[in-house]
Amino acid sequence: MGRVLLSLFLFLSLALPVFAVDYTSDANCQGAWLIEEGEGTSVADDSQNTNNLGFAGDPTWATATPAAAYSTSYLSFDGDDRLSASYDASLAPTGALSLVTWARRPAKDVDDGLIGFGERNSNGYMLRWYSNNAVLIYLLGEDGGAWHNATIGADDVATWVHFVFCYDGAVDGVATAYKNGVEAKGGDNLSGDGLIVYDNDETFYLAYSQAGQGAYFTGDMDESAVFSDIITLTEASDIYDNGLYEASAAAGQVIMIF
Amino acid sequence: MRIILVLIFCLMTSLAYAEVTGEIIAKDIDEKGNIRIWTQYKIDGVEVESRYPKIDGKYVYATRFAAHNFAGLSDAQIELRILRETKAQSKNLFKQEFIRKTISTNNEIFDKHLKTIVGKSISVETAEIKVGDDITLEIKTDGTSSIKSILIP
User: Fold this and answer.
1) Which CATH architecture has domain A2-242?
2) Dihedral angle sign, alpha carbons of residues B101, B106, B111, B114
3) Cα–Cα distance measured from residue B57 to residue B49, given in angstroms and rounded to the nearest whole number
């Protein structure tokens, strides 16, 4: 009887999973840039895809970050710098898509690209912070090239703001936008229909919009990511509060309780 | 022998029992004035670990709301709106758990699920080329084409 109870106890103990919260190891995380290097001319991708970003221009490293960010560094862009990676299919999800970033701008009188992939009026997606205080996600679809866009207001200046924009991947899709962990007003006015299309000779950017668009970001950026799934409101709050990466947990590990 | 039977029984029952629950534990106002709901999630009865400080010894997750999220809603509808988010996160955890237990790495997909991909083929009958800022052509290999207009944002 004792052996039976012992076996039962061991089995139940081994079967109890406690999940380490690490969004960079999520199966749907296609790119995660913690911007933690603090020096050098590249930023590592901490997702499974290693879409590392190289510098173009002269972004500068600085210390201190949004409270939730894992790293102690961030990058400053002066309007003619950007980070880029060559085309990789992992950054081109045709279904659901979520873009995540921290950004801070010194003024609101410029049109800035935060995350971009593809070519203007042709393919891909981009997240832009406009001079009129609007933040928009653009998705270029297969229905003749119509832009799908969703807009939220963000008049923040000289303060870090956390943005999460999600597209559910449906043909008549819905976009949801979270600002600082709260569902933002106006995030669901997605226009057009059709799935996102890509061209495999295009480039992925941080601090820039798209090839042919020319909207460089002026300001600071920190932890950013691309997911091939929607981010829930609870996840948006978690990333806003605690960052993309959990330093104390091994990536992707399922911890067993003994 | 009895040990094996017990293990088989436990394995069968554990596989049959699959549930994600979300229980609202607390509420407060965050530093920016947003409404914050604290929820404990469990998968098959086991707490999901979080990075927030525990509340009453429980792992919790925050979900934030602002007044505009509840515009025009009654008390009951506001509760339903919050519970809808709890349900969405529960479904998300369910999905993540499924993914974890099925496919988790590129190598696993490569090793287990691409055994018959070599030799498969597809055919394409048309393609598109861009000839201007607002025009694309749908083309065929026989030299014919048709114009598809695109919109400029």
Assistant:
1) Sandwich (2.60)
2) positive
3) 12
Sequence ranges of the domains in chain A: 2-242
Q: How far apart are CA A147 and CA A122, in angstroms?
A: 9
- Start-to-end CA distance of chain B, whole Å, equals 71
DSSP line for A200-240: TT-EEEESB--BTT--B-EEEEEEEEEESSPPPHHHHHHHH
Q: Which residue of B has its CA nearest to A244?
A: B51
Q: What sign results for the dihedral spanned by CA atoms A50, A55, A56, A62? A: positive
What is the reported pLDDT for A254?
32
The burial of A192, by beta-carbon neighbours within 10 Å (0-12 exposed, 13-18 middle, 19 or more buried), is given as: middle
Summarised one tens digit per residue, pLDDT across range B81-103 is 999 999 999 999 988 877 777 76
Task: Work out the average pLDDT over B111-129.
Answer: 82
Predicted complex ipTM: 0.82
Which of B8, B24, B63 to substitute to test the interface with A, most A CBs within 10 Å? B63
Give residues 42 to 101 of B whose Cβ lies within 8 Å of A.
43, 46-52, 61-66, 68-69, 85-86, 88-89, 92, 96, 99-100
pTM of the predicted protein model: 0.79
* DSSP type of residue A25: G
